Amino acid sequence: MIVGTVEIRLHLHDARTLKDKRRILLSLKDRLRKGFNVSVAEVDGQDMIQSAVLAVAQVGNDSRYINGTLDKVVQAVKRVPAARLVDYSIELF
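and the corresponding structure tokens:
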């Protein structure tokens, strides 16, 4: 069993309130879940309006497939106009 995770740090320049932040993140998390069959959660920065840390995870038996999927997740996040990717880290266990 292979578990792949990616921690994604975002700057949400369009968020002016926590409600704006929730709207942006809910849309992004739904898009990632449906598009890549991954689990997504906000894991840090919940009280900060313009920053967020998302954790994305996928489990499988092929490390190349999981690594490729997580790379595609990062590329999809880079294309979100309301968020700027600050940093990310991919790990396989």
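(Above: one complete record from the training split.) The radius of gyration is 13 Å.
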